[in-house]
Amino acid sequence: MTTDEPHPIRFAVRGPIDHADLPGLCERVCRLLAGRSGCVVLCDVGGVTADAGSVDALARLQLAASRNGCRVRLRNASAELRDVVALMGLTDVLPE
C-alpha cells in the first residue's frame, strides 16, 4: 500500500530549554525541514521540562515547521507537559 504523505521526520528535544537556545533550535529544525513540504515531524519531548518556557519553545518549533509547510506532533509528552500546553491554550497547536 502506498501513501502520498512522506515518511515522518523524528527528532528529540531534551529540556530544560533555555530562551537563549531557541534561535539555534529553530535554525536546526528549519535546515532539517528544508525542501520537505508537507512532512510530519514527530518530536519526542519525553525529557522536556513542563513549564511555560518549554511550551513557548515547542510552539516556536511548530511555527518554524509550518513556515516550511510541515507540522509537528509531540510524542512521549508527560501529563504535566500536556497540562501546561492545555493551560496555555495550545492543544490544537501542539497535538500529540
The main sheet orders its strands as 1-2-3
- How many DSSP H or I helices? 3
Q: Which bin fits the share of residues in helices?
A: 25-40%
Structural class category: alpha/beta
End-to-end span in angstroms? Answer: 25 Å
Q: SSE order, as H and E?
A: EHEHEH
Q: Could you report the average pLDDT, rounded to the nearest whole number?
A: 87
* Strand elements, count: 3
How many separate domains?
A: 1
Tell me the Rg in angstroms: 13 Å
| Low-pLDDT residue intervals, each spanning 5 or more residues | none
How would the global form be characterised?
globular
Largest sheet: 3 strands, parallel
Strand proportion, as a percent range, falls in 15-25%
